[in-house]
Amino acid sequence: NYFDHFDWQLVEMASAMTDLSSLIHPAIHTLINFDRQHNTDYYETLREYLLHDSGLTLNEMADKLHIHRNTLRYRLDRICEIAQFDLKNAALKQQALLSIYCFDLFPKMR
């Protein structure tokens, strides 16, 4: 279905018109750099959280990540602290998701 992959198609079209690095939200860069420096997985946690935000409960998300629910809560709190990211801000979550789509389609950008 076309709409199942609409966001991905937008990123692919944008890549033909502009340097995609300009689309990456600074909070995402902050998390990736933190992960590299501290050997953590906050970017991957945020990625999974945002990709499945509307469809899974916190318990289901923790199971998907193979971690305890409290660990997921801790990681989400740390993500908010490290990247100054507000998980309640829908526009910010959309911007971060766009960044994640860019990285998924063009992993060398990371």
Question: Could you explain the architecture of this structure?
Answer:
- By secondary structure, the protein is mainly α.
- It contains six helices and no strands.
- It has helices spanning about 5-15, 25-40, 40-50, 60-65, 70-85, 90-105.
- α1 (about 5-15) crosses α6 (about 90-105) and α3 crosses α5 (about 70-85).
From the alpha carbons, calculate the radius of gyration and give it in angstroms. 14 Å
The unreliable regions are none
Q: Structural class of the secondary structure composition?
A: mainly alpha
Strand composition percent: under 5%
What is the count of helical runs?
6
Please count the beta strands (DSSP E, at least 2 residues each).
0
> What is the share of helical residues?
55-70%
Distance, first to last CA: 29 Å
What is the residue-averaged pLDDT? 83
Element order: H for helix, E for strand: HHHHHH
Largest sheet: none
Shape: globular
